[in-house]
Amino acid sequence: MEPRGPVSVSAVLPAGGSGERLGGATPKQFCAVQGRPLVSYAVRAMERISWISDIIVVVSPENIETMKTIIEKYGHRRVTVVEGGITRHRSIFNGLKVFAEKEFSSHLLQKPEVVIIHDAVRPFVEEDIVSKVVMAAKEHGAAGAIRPLVSTVIASAADGCLDHSLERARYRASEMPQAFLFDIIYEAYQQCTDYDLDYGTECLHLALKYCKTNAKLVEGTTDLWKVTYKRDLYAAESIIKDNLSQRVCVITKGKESLAQVGFLLPESLKNQIKVEAISVSPSKNDSHLQNIISGQCYNFVCVNDKRCAIQEIQELVDMLEKSNTPLLYPVVLISVHLDISENNSFSIGMEDITTIKKFARETKKKNILVYGLLIQYKVQSMI
Ligand SMILES: Nc1ccn([C@@H]2O[C@H](COP(=O)(O)OP(=O)(O)OP(=O)(O)O)[C@@H](O)[C@H]2O)c(=O)n1
Ligand SMILES: O=P(O)(O)OC[C@@H](O)[C@@H](O)[C@@H](O)CO
Q1: Residue 232 Cβ < 6 Å to ligand 2
Q2: What subunit structure does UniProt give (predicted)?
Q3: Ligand 2 mean position to 122 CA, how many Å?
Q4: Homologous superfamily of 9-241 in CATH?
Q5: What average pLDDT values come out for the chain (383 residues) when binned by 10 residues?
Q6: 25 burial class (0-12, 13-18, 19+ CB within 10 angstroms)?
Q7: In the chain, is it the N or the C terminus that has fewer CB atoms within a 10 Å radius of its CB?
Q8: Among the atoms of ligand 1, which is closest to the Cα of residue 87?
Q9: How far, in Å, from the CA of 137 to the mean position of ligand 2?
């Protein structure tokens, strides 16, 4: 949902931290989730939003090349990598400078009217909440996503005992994305004290403190959380796996003998997951299949009546590789070999099995997992 009225929007993704709380040698933003660096998810999420002009990823000096490699490998567009600072606020400030200070960046980017700030370790962000926050920032000068508190906030006294607790219902957790009229947040950062830059955690507070701008608070969705601890990485992995398994494309050859299966299988699956059914062979370079592939479908069931349909599967593999969207996750291809035979002995030669296994080993290197399923069924002859 594009923000109402002409408004230029860009995004700054701070990704310059060391991930101490997560532990390990690799900063959490570069840890793999489903085989892909965590930072790539937030970049992709912003990339999918067509009305965001530039995406600034702010990383520590030693990770500049790592980030550029990720951008290259996953085909990210409209992304500029900027050197971060020793704190999150300093990194964000550096990200903003690329729009305002010629000497800071080799090429000055067009200053946006509204700038989104979103932690690069918050992988699940949808266009809807980004749009709401941007529209609110356009109207109020600043806006941020919020969520209900899970734990009660308490204050401890000097002796380490409870001093008081806050009434939880009156407070919210400040999440991301946030958005600001660029001039407001840039002015706030320019006026910031070193204490704020080194110890602050809240951009909305800077807009209020230095620009007297009360940010509009926008109720966010449940999946806006930040990857902070190891458990968050595991949670992100399972959410992504779950999302990936929600869609399957069933491809059957046009032969009438398979049409029934090609109909029954989607029918039986459609109550559990989203099913696309295609009844022509991939070799026809079907535009419908192309759209499904570019729409990031990762599960395909190819129903055929050949004992070894390597040719058909190879054609689908070729289409996947030629698709202009990089394969961001493992693709699962299940080749279902139907044998509608009258005789009892359906057997697939060892040679065919060897061929399929060899083919599967080759495609696995391309992150495409091929499985073969043999189904023999007999059509009951009407007496
Ligand atoms: N100097 C810093 C510190 C943090 N961040 C980024 O700000 C976001 C939120 O910060 P946080 O979750 O605290 O990340 P880390 O500082 O890496 O985590 P930790 O405090 O556990 O080290 C992250 O995307 C992180 O990479 C940054 O750009 N520059
Ligand atoms: O404090 P951390 O550096 O872990 O993370 C930054 C968070 O504080 C920040 O993303 C939200 O609270 C919104 O400001």
Answers
A1: no
A2: Homodimer.
A3: 10
A4: Spore Coat Polysaccharide Biosynthesis Protein SpsA; Chain A (3.90.550.10)
A5: 80 98 96 92 94 97 98 94 97 96 70 98 96 98 98 97 97 98 98 98 98 98 96 94 85 70 80 83 69 80 78 84 68 83 63 84 87 76 60
A6: exposed
A7: C
A8: 1
A9: 19
The model's pLDDT over 129-149, given as tens digits with 9 standing for 90+, comes to 999 999 999 999 999 999 999
The verdict on the CB of residue 201 being under 6 Å from ligand 2 is: yes
Asked if 85 and 91 touch (Cβ cutoff 8 Å), the reply is yes
Q: What predicted TM-score, i.e. pTM, was given to this entire model?
A: 0.81
CA distance 13 to 20: 19
pLDDT of residue 357: 87
Q: Which atom of ligand 2 is nearest to the CA of 17?
A: 3
- Ligand number with the minimum distance to the CA of 16: 1
Q: Which residues line ligand 1 (CB under 6 A)?
A: 14-21, 27, 29, 58, 84-88, 91, 119-121, 226, 228
ipTM for the predicted complex comes to 0.98
> Domain segments of the chain: what residues?
9-241, 245-376
Predicted local confidence at residue 344, as pLDDT? 57
Which CATH architecture is the domain 245-376 placed in?
3-Layer(aba) Sandwich (3.40)
What is the pLDDT at residue 114? 98
Q: How far apart are CA 208 and CA 188, in angstroms?
A: 8
Single-letter residue type at 182: F
Does the beta carbon of 202 lie inside 6 Å of ligand 2?
A: yes
For 15, 134, 284, 289, 323, the CA distances from 279, given in Å and listed in that order, are: 45, 43, 11, 10, 20
